[in-house]
Amino acid sequence: MRPYILTIFLFASVSDSILGQQQVGLDHAPKTDLFQSQFSENQMPLIPKKEPGLHNGRYSTNQTNKRVNGQYGFVTSFLYYFSSPTDSLVITKTERTYNEFGITKRCVYWWDTDVNDWIKASKLEIDYDGNGNEILIIHYNSNKDTNDWLEDQKTEHLYNEKGDELLEAYYHWDENINDWIGDNKTEKNYDEFGNRILWCDYGWDSNTNDWIGMWKYESNYDEVGNLTLDVTYVWDSNINNWVGDIKRENIFNDNRKIFIAYNWNTPTNDWIAAWKEEENIDGTLLLGYLWDSDTNDWLLKWKTENTYDENNNRILSVGHKWDSASNNWVGTTIHEADYDELGNLIFGVQYKWDSTSNTWVGIAKYELDFDESGNILSYASYDWSSATNDWQGSNKWEESYDENGNIIFGVGYSWDKNTNEWAARNKWEYGFDEFGNKVLDSRYEWDTITNDWAGITKMEYFYDVNGNDILSISYRWDSEINNWIMRRKNEYVFDELGNRVIQIRYDWISDKQEWVVEEKIFSSYWTGTTTEVTEVAKKNIFLYPNPTNSYLYILEMATPFDIVIISTQGLILKQERMHSNQTDISALSQGVYIIKVYRDEKEVLSKLIVKN
Predict the structure, then answer these.
(1) Alpha helices, DSSP H only, in 222-311?
(2) 309-370 CATH fold
């Protein structure tokens, strides 16, 4: 029995396309939220930063597993091919094994053209505890001379029964002493409610060949989960023990929250107060104090007054500092905000106090507009110009949406100081199918020479009936013809569980007006079962796909060679002299067959499954 199945193949012609094997369709995946922002309850609302044209949809080509019908398909082999217009060359091979928790071993090999065989590149081994947590990870490199595995790096983890991490330690292999050397280690502990109450960081002391402390954090929580104490320690190598660094206390009562910070005083070997904040439970008043070591008392130094609307949105925040010279409060900052009837932030402005002119001076302003679904239609930011003593535009963008809430069009602007107007800067266009899949992603920038839009990038996506992305085409902008031209293409094939088994990348050759294969990646997957293959020779062959009902690819066998396909009753059903690695078996009925491969007077047997 094999722990995994290695299935690989290579296309016979660089002009072959795999798109014909898949039916173009639409994805059924649910769409995600378009835009979300969160504001801290202790801060004025801030506008979330957004890059023009950035859409939350992301399409990854690095698929590891996908669950279909209650089964996971874990990738067990991964081959990378580099192709030129005249030939194809295998570059790397990756083999993986799994248990019920995930991957347990991953081996990567390079193809050595000198010896015409695979050589070791890197290896990863992973162990798990009974709950499926990774507790040991070891990475190996290879000895190029002996082709043996060499230890490189190691990671250790320890978890409690609740799944909380108690230990995380990193090591590297020292060839001089032929043993592991520590890099850094973290120890943690938790209370009965899962709150972390201890965190210790250690480094490796090469003199003592042991761990040495770096930082330690201790925390306490009250019965409702509020953090009441947070203490930071540093390691003192002189006394070989922890010493205090910073301490923070939180005190909660019926109408006020109090925060006190302390610093460690080395001469007195004790904590000394540094500063304190007191805040009303309703958030309307925040007072700040500094500790006066002369009077051994708190001195009031700053305060913030907040105003809220009937929906508890903060609409005004005024900051002050205490001026000991005038023995009075002096303004520092003002934040104002406004909201629409749906609670969306539509306006914000910030001022600072100018002591020279004794007036409030603008700092920043922003305006937003929303549709009835809460989608942002426009956002504009402004800066204060001291030259004109007025607001001046900074950045603006506008977007529109389809009926499903997907962004389909957007334009970004910057402020033109010469014309004192908004000037177009970039544009983005997206297309979606009826299931919310992105089928188009194009970006443009404004060309001030042609006074028109010029393309930057464009992508088109296609899906099969199961929602798998089977084709993507990228384009680049040709300024001479003022239009898009093809640049690169990716084609994908998926198995019945939705695992990606083949990826082929093409480059567009403009001179020849044709696609040329640039690289090929092949993967096979483990679904919790194994396939038994009979081997009577030392040389392995690999059949792909198996089961199949059309074409069969025979790998790891140099052409020419001969094949014979025999039924379980011993009847010879097919004989063929192979000058490529592909043969047509569509004439065979569904069932199990024996395939014999002959080359150089050697015979290799394997089992072939035909499944219609």
Answers:
(1) none
(2) Lipocalin (2.40.128)
